[in-house]
């Protein structure tokens, strides 16, 4: 079984989007370099960011998101982002009316059911959990192995929190990855067990 990584780009004050779900300048680092991050060439980063991010993306077998993110992105048009094979959506509602049942999206009622399905699909590859409310619920349930943050040099002041509504204390190990890119600091922490 692969590791479970809670991930997102985050502001230095801990937000993944503003109150209207807009990331503002959080993703400026994805266009701040001269190394293409994917085959489209639309994302260009520094070499340091490329080396870490490309390797991480290539490990991901499944991404878990909440229904809110699924709805915001309109389900990415039925095609998982970034070349990921499957997306598991935590939702108490079924797939939208007219949703293509052949699309590699799976709907699960609750975080435990979502994790079970994601690990089944991912095998020994990484299960990525989107930060925010679902990520915070997964962390609180003890289902996350690592916290990965791409910290952007911006203060949003308020908005959607990286850890969602987590209220309890959770200890992380010292960072085992700290890499400076252009307009971003990549930091990875293992969750203390």
UniProtKB/TrEMBL annotation:
Gene3D superfamilies: Dihydrofolate Reductase, subunit A. Residues 3-171 form the Bacterial bifunctional deaminase-reductase C-terminal domain. InterPro entries: DHFR-like_dom_sf, RibDG_C. This is Dihydrofolate reductase family protein.
């Amino acid at each position: 079984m692969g590791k479970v990584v809670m991930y997102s780009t985050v502001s230095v004050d801990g937000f993944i989007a503003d109150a209207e779900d807009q990331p503002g300048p959080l993703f400026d680092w994805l266009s701040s370099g001269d190394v293409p991050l994917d085959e489209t060439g639309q994302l260009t980063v520094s070499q340091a960011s490329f080396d870490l991010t490309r390797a991480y993306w290539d490990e991901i077998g499944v991404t878990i998101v909440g229904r809110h993110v699924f709805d915001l992105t309109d389900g990415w048009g039925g095609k998982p982002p970034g070349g990921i094979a499957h997306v598991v959506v935590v939702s108490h509602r079924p797939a939208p009316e007219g949703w293509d049942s052949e699309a590699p999206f799976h709907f699960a009622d609750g975080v435990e059911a979502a994790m079970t399905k994601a690990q089944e699909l991912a095998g020994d590859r990484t299960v990525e959990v989107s930060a925010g409310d679902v990520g915070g619920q997964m962390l609180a349930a003890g289902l996350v192995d690592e916290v990965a943050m791409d910290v952007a040099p911006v203060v949003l002041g308020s908005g959607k929190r990286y850890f969602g509504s987590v209220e309890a204390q959770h200890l992380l190990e010292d960072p085992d990855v700290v890499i400076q890119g252009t307009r971003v600091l990549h930091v990875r922490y293992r969750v203390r067990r």
